[in-house]
Structures are given as structure tokens and as C-alpha cells.
Amino acid sequence: MGVTGRVTQDLKPRFRVVQKMKDYINFLKEVESLNNKYASIYFNVELEALAMPFWSWEEIQKGLELRQEWEVDESLIPFYGDWHDLFCLNGITGEIVALNDEREVLCSWTSVKDFLSCMSEKEIVYDEYLEGGVHHFGDSKGHEVKH
């Protein structure tokens, strides 16, 4: 193998990493648009309401500076939630995780594609009274609203 062949071989893994980062950035720049279509997500086999909006690109960028204060790992990029409950993209692996206030992983998706495949347009209404009007991941059982 000549020098050119070795250089090409050496650059292939780096190119894949750069391409994945571009894909992650594109997802994060467009994630706010999910608010227009989806009302819920399949979360550990249960349908959960999306009670808060997905963040804008600007909110995501500002959120990077708040990770340490909210005890969120540096490898995670939050893009949904109220800092108690969060959806985050792992900037290294591409995995998406749902974290609770104790920073436990409640649910994970292996990729952006898997996460998007779990999104649903179904609206959820909760039967139980929600304390303070706040719904946290896995708090209560809801039922689907049929249109």
C-alpha cells in the first residue's frame, strides 16, 4: 500500500467521527421543530406525554454552560426538559438518555433514529392530579386521547 492509501485509511475513522458530529448538530438544530408534530413518546414501553417543549438551538447552546451547575455530565447535551427531568444527546456515542432529578438514566435510545422512531402524535391526559401542575418522567399513568 502506498503513502496515499495509508493516509486514506488513517482518515476514514476520523471522517466518520466528523460526519457523526455533523449529524448530531443537525439534529440539535432541528429538534425544536418536533414541538409542531409530536405530543408524546414511547418511554420504557409506556406512552409518556411531552409536557414541555423541545429546546431551540439557542437554548441548547446556553444549556451547555449550565451542565455543571445542574450536575449533568459534560458528554451530555440537554435538549428537552426543565433541568429536573432532561433528554440529552451523548455527544460521544450518539445515544439519547432521559435523566431524572437524581441524574439516573430512566430510559435510553441507542441513536437519534431510534429516539425519533419512538415519537408519537397521540395526546395523553393524566387521570391523577399532578402536584403543582408538574409532570415528571414516569410519575403517573395517563390515557390516550382519541381524535
Describe the structure.
- By secondary structure, the protein is an alpha+beta fold.
- The chain has a single domain (about 5-125), classed as SMI1/KNR4-like (3-Layer(aba) Sandwich), CATH 3.40.1580.
- About 30% of the residues lie in helices and about 25% in strands.
- The chain has helices spanning about 5-30, 55-65, 110-115; strands spanning about 40-45, 45-50, 75-80, 85-90, 95-100, 105-110, 120, 125, 140-145.
- The strands form 3 sheets. The chain has a 4-stranded antiparallel beta sheet with strand order 3-4-5-6. It has a 3-stranded antiparallel beta sheet with strand order 2-1-7. A two-stranded antiparallel sheet has the order 8-9.
- Strand 3 (about 75-80) and strand 4 (about 85-90) form a beta hairpin.
Give the key terms.
147 residues, alpha+beta, SMI1/KNR4-like, 4-stranded antiparallel β-sheet, 3-stranded antiparallel β-sheet, 3 helices, 26% strand, globular, disordered C terminus
Concise account of the structure shown:
The protein has 147 residues and is α+β, with helices and mostly antiparallel strands.
